[in-house]
Design goal:
By secondary structure, the protein is α/β, with parallel strands linked by helices. It has two domains: 12-104, no CATH class; 119-249, 3-Layer(aba) Sandwich (Rossmann fold). 54% of the residues lie in helices and 8% in strands. The chain is built from ten helices and four strands, in the order H-H-H-H-H-H-H-E-H-E-H-E-E-H. A four-stranded mixed beta sheet has the order 1-2-3-4. Helix 9 links the parallel strand 2 (176-182) and strand 3 (201-206). Helix 1 runs antiparallel to helix 4 and helix 6 (119-129) packs across helix 8 (155-168). The longest helix has 20 residues, at 30-49. The radius of gyration is 18 Å and the shape is globular. The mean pLDDT is 88.
C-alpha cells in the first residue's frame, strides 16, 4: 500500500521517512501507525529522564501496550523512523520535520481541519520578536521564556530557537525556556519530540489553552500530570537550579 501525499516532500529524509513508513500500513491504518509512532518516540524520550513515579509507570504501560500490537520486524521499522527523524533534525534544525510530514501525508485534513504555519513564515515572525528587550531580560534573570498556546508540531518554537541563535549569536539551550500547549495530543507530542531532539529546555502541555492555559514564564517543578511533557534539557543542572530558586521565591 502506498501513501498518498498532497504535495512533493521537500527533503530526502522526508522521502526516506515516507517510504519506510509504508512498511507498516499493510496491516495497520496509516493514522494508527502515525499515532503509535509519536507515542512511542515521546515516551522513549520522556521515560529516559522524567522519573516522576506515577507518570513514568503510566507511560511505560502505554509504551508496552503499543509495542505488543506489532511484530518484532514491525517494531524495528519504528526504530528506523525515529532514527530518520533524529538525523533529519541534526542535518537541518531549521525545519518542522514532523509537521511537514503530518500535513503532506494528509493527517491534518478532513475533519481535523489543521493547517500548520509554513516554516519560513514562522521564522520571519520569530525574528520580529527578538530585539534589545530580549537581551535585557536575559541579563536581568538569566533566561527568557517563549510560549505558543497553540503549538501544533512546534513550528513557531523551532523557528524561534533558530532565530535566537542567529540574532543573539549564542546557543538557546541555557537561556530560553520553551513552552507549548495544544489541545490535540498527537501534535503536542510531535512538538515535544522535536523540541527534545533540538536540545530545547521546556515542556509541552496537552490541553485547552483557553480554559486551562499554561503560563510561559513559569517553571513547574512537581507535576504528576501525564499531560505535561518535560524535555531532557529541562532536567539539566542549569534548569534544575533555576526551578529550585523559582520555587523558593514563589
Amino acid at each position: 500500500m502506498a501513501l498518498r501525499t498532497k504535495a512533493v516532500l521537500s527533503s530526502e529524509k522526508a522521502k526516506e521517512f515516507a517510504k519506510t513508513f509504508e512498511q507498516l500500513i499493510y496491516r495497520h491504518s496509516a493514522w494508527k501507525v502515525w499515532q503509535d509512532f509519536v507515542d512511542l518516540c515521546a515516551i522513549s524520550i520522556s521515560n529516559a529522564v522524567d522519573k516522576r513515579e506515577a507518570v513514568w509507570k503510566t507511560r511505560e504501560k502505554e509504551f508496552m501496550s503499543i509495542r505488543s500490537s506489532y511484530t518484532e520486524d514491525e517494531f524495528s521499522v519504528f526504530v528506523s523512523l525515529f532514527s530518520i527523524t533524529i538525523h533529519a533534525l541534526e542535518d537541518d534544525p531549521a525545519q518542522d520535520f514532523l509537521g511537514e510530514l503530518y500535513m503532506k501525508l494528509n493527517f491534518g485534513d478532513g475533519w481535523k481541519g489543521q493547517f500548520f504555519t509554513p516554516f519560513h513564515i514562522s521564522e520571519m515572525m520569530a525574528r520580529i520578536t527578538i530585539g534589545e528587550k530580549t537581551q535585557e531580560e536575559i541579563k536581568e534573570k538569566g533566561y527568557i521564556s517563549v510560549n505558543d498556546p497553540a503549538c501544533g508540531s512546534g513550528c513557531m518554537l523551532i523557528a524561534f530557537a533558530q532565530a535566537y541563535k542567529s540574532e543573539i549569536k549564542e546557543a538557546y539551550h541555557n537561556s530560553v525556556l520553551f513552552v507549548g500547549q495544544d489541545i490535540d495530543p498527537v501534535v503536542a507530542k510531535m512538538c515535544y519530540i522535536q523540541l527534545s531532539l533540538l536540545g530545547c529546555a521546556g515542556y509541552v502541555a496537552v490541553g485547552n489553552s483557553l480554559t486551562n492555559p499554561i503560563e510561559g514564564n513559569g517553571m513547574p517543578a512537581d507535576y504528576d500530570d501525564t499531560d505535561i511533557w518535560f524535555t531532557p534539557v529541562y532536567f539539566s543542572e542549569v534548569w534544575t537550579a533555576r526551578r529550585i530558586i523559582n520555587n523558593c521565591l514563589a
